[in-house]
Amino acid sequence: MSIHDFIKKIKNHEIDIVEHTYKLIEECKEINKEYNYLNTISEDLALNSAREIKIQLKQKNKNIKNKKLLGVAVSVKDAICVKDVETTAGSKILKNYKPLFDAFVIQKVREEGGIIIGKTSQDEFGFGGFSVNVGIGFKVPKNPFDIDRSCGGSSGGAAGLSQKLSNHIALGESTGGSIVEPASFCGVYGLCPTYGRVSRYGLIDFANSLDKIGPIGKNIEDVALLMSVISGYDKNDSTSLNTKNENYESHLKKPVKGMKIGIIKEAFGQGVEREVEKNVYNGIEELEEEGAKAEEISLELPIRYGIGTYYMIATSEASTNLAKYCGMRYGATEKLEGSFNEYFTKVRSSNFGDEAKRRIILGTFARMAGYRDAFYLKAMKVRTLMIQEYKKAFKKFDALVSPTASILPPKFEDIEKLSPLQHYMIDVMTVSPNVAGLPHLNVPVELECS
Ligand code: GLN
């Protein structure tokens, strides 16, 4: 059943929303036993919202029938604040934090009758591409098709749950690929919007100039629906775009015929698994059969320098964002003793995971006087060059195509052998559109595991 049909049935009283939500929560608990997609299941909140909808439907409340997400379950990446629901960004340092407010996107979901079912698992603060860098004490989510493999990251829980749970849409977040990459590993759609299109108000920051919230879902219609709900101007986010709201669902009806599609030359060949390449080309062929015109384009700068540029900017911003978790202003505390430095060191050492510590050191180094020009400012210059290269490409093409990830979901035992740099390479295709603020979408082409 599509989400549209589901909403219709709720409106026509063919489905009892309270019963349905109860069953769905039980299903989440069952799925979680094996797959670890949810850090928190917000059972009370979900059932209360369902009861409220039921009452309003009974009272034939005028507004209720116009709600775009009426009764639809929405899961939320743990980096997005939900009032009174534990929100940790996957980190021990934020354990037990219950926000006093809803993020902008959560306000929107609730206004449209969506039901928040819980907080999905992720790499700590979004630091990773396999969801294995979870904070101390958190569980690693597993691929819905093979529990020995990764479901990608950092929105791994969101993507896995989207594949496993019907009548549900997920809210993910991406800084360098964390929506589309896990979506590709789990065979679902994920849309990382244009920077500023969706408000970041209430998002626990990773890197402010890169972070974007976006939908992940089993069907493209679901992704478009949630995108229409969460996008729009917000005065509480100074980087929010003040442009008119769009109905993303209307775009789905537009024909592919006549579209010009650029195949990114450097995104194929060396380093890309054969199955991945073959399936992406099959997808391109399908587009051509529908009347799209595909042609190769060289985009050397984004593919070659994307990773280096991204990691300088992302870690620089992350290291400043994490400075506030010092045991006094935000997050976990410890027994107050010793000098300030000793105290801060104790709190941060025992509550941040290894990857968070690595990024704090890397980012602090890149921003230091003496190194800033060589690293951070250089990266900002390359960022501008990348934007220019993309602008040139979009003069000629309507869309660009590449694999989302160059490999199939790896096994955990193989991920363990990777160096930090090899971990970073997983986002070689996706960091550059993030650096340039561009929207990108994962379209599943084939399910294949070697
Ligand atoms: N894998 C990238 C990183 O570790 C991107 C993560 C993200 O988009 N949050 O930084």
In short:
With about 450 residues, the protein is an alpha/beta fold. The protein has helices spanning about 5-10, 15-35, 45-60, 105-110, 155-165, 180-185, 220-230, 250, 275-290, 300-320, 340-350, 355-365, 375-395, 410-415, 420-425, 430-435; strands at about 40, 75, 115-120, 140-145, 145-150, 170-175, 190, 210-215, 260-265, 295, 400, 440.
Topology:
Elements: H1 3-11, H2 17-35, E1 38-41, H3 43-58, E2 73-77, H4 104-111, E3 115-120, E4 142-143, E5 146-150, H5 156-164, E6 168-174, H6 180-186, E7 189-192, E8 212-217, H7 220-230, H8 248-251, E9 260-264, H9 274-289, E10 293-297, H10 300-321, H11 340-351, H12 354-367, H13 376-396, E11 399-401, H14 412-415, H15 420-424, H16 431-435, E12 440-442
Parallel strand pairs: 2-3, 2-6, 9-10, 9-11
Antiparallel strand pairs: 1-3, 4-5, 6-8, 7-8, 7-12
Helix pairs in contact: 2-3, 5-6, 10-12, 10-13
The chain binds glutamine.
